[in-house]
Amino acid sequence: MERKLYFVIGTLWTVVVLAACLLSSETIAKAPRFDIPYKDKLAHFTFYFVFSVIWFKYYVKSNPNTSRIKLSIRIFTIASLMGGIVEVLQYYFTASRSAEWADELANCLGSLFGVLLCLTLFRRKK
What we know:
There is one protein chain. The protein is mainly α. It is 73% helix and 0% strand. The radius of gyration is 15 Å and the shape is elongated. It starts with a helix and ends in a 5-residue tail after the last helix. The model has no long low-confidence stretch (mean pLDDT 87).
């Protein structure tokens, strides 16, 4: 049951990330304005940090004997590719979004920190 819950949460989070990155900025409800430097990069970092943690937890629940290192590499690779594809889609197919390599860097760093946290917190029981 817990495994299915992580799958549903992971799928919903992935849809939210994709929607937030690809929908027109007029479509998305405006959040209160805070004067935080690089808040866009912080949002990208957070999106992919949470993405990586949720999917790591799901895959550990699905297969407890899986190598945590291989799983981390797999999740990081998927998150990085997804972030890169989103940036390319923003560049070619959206009018109100712009593609930035700094966004992809924030995506990768968020995912990296997410899997590193998971490697620390969710060690295999001996």
